[in-house]
Amino acid sequence: xxxxxNSRQSLIPNFIYTSSSSPSSLLMTKTSNPSLFPSTxxxxxxxxxxxxxxxxxxxxxxxxxxxxxxxxxxxxxxSCGLTHMTVTPLDLVKCNMQIDPAKYKSISSGFGVLLKxxxxxxxxxxWVPTLLGYSAQGACKFGFYEFFKKYYSDIxxxxxxxxxxxxxxxxxxxxAEVIADVALCPMEAVKVRVQTQPGxxxxxxxxxxxxxxxxxxxxxxxxxxxxxxxxxPYTMMKFASFETIVEMMYKYAIPTPKNECSKSLQLGVxxxxxxxxxVLCAVVSHPADNLVSFLNNAKGASVGDAVKKLGVWxxxxxxxxxxxxxxxxxxxxxxxxxxxxxVFVGLPTTGGAAPAPVAETAEA
Length: 364
What we know:
The chain is an all-alpha fold and 364 residues long. The protein has helices at residues 5-17, 66-86, 88-99, 107-118, 127-156, 158-163, 165-196, 204-215, 224-253, 263-297, 303-317, 320-344, and strands at residues 29-30, 49-51, 61-62.
């Protein structure tokens, strides 16, 4: 049984973005007229993939077009920038617990110390570099993840892309995070210094020039390798586990096929899957998170210095409970916001049960 060229082109992206095994129910449809619903006549179909948007504020978006990746990039900015800025107080306490555990002994006492010494305004120290840094990271993380996921699927081909989809999720997310951390690193360095050294600076405006004068422009990237060590495993777990968890939820927990579920239910699944994935992310990436906080706080410090002072056990456990709560909530909210924006512009939500490959017989 031969497989037509059109079938080969459609198999790769379809299994990633749809949950239905029926070709007629795919959210991504091929049509000769983008302004109409897809025709059922194969003779009139062309090779452009178009999403019928319910609201279509930007018009119909062709899959894997520049507008598609632009929409994913904007969704990433909103999901990461806003959520990280919102949890700035938790991040502030967590960083100080990692740097000065004798003073910040627990979550509750940490909030008490900050309130006593810096007042309510002190809980949001470093919010500007947090917003800018994680917005840039989110843009690269989600935008390039969608790009690399499609790119690696094309390389693997339909059969292997479906068979080894988890490896594609892992490779795509790792590749995206390498780029995303280059965008994040300068703002992360300034954020940690502002949050953990009272009196260093009020925020980004005076903190960035002071940091550069002290350690040079390259000092902004001193924590890049540990940041990769924290964020790449984190992001691989974030995307691969989310895709897997969501697929399992639609397959085993929800009796209705994904394409028949309401948008609110789909977004609820995105949040739940994101929260569980976030807990796993926090555990995997926590030792590197302690290293990043230590190196960005101490001038001239090395990884060896951090291990010597914190200890191996401290690297894995110091500040972990708070980070689990923070990252779980953060990741769940990120996936909820990201998929909500995709729905808003007419794109399908991320993840879902993969359909069986569909082969078309070539006419003799």
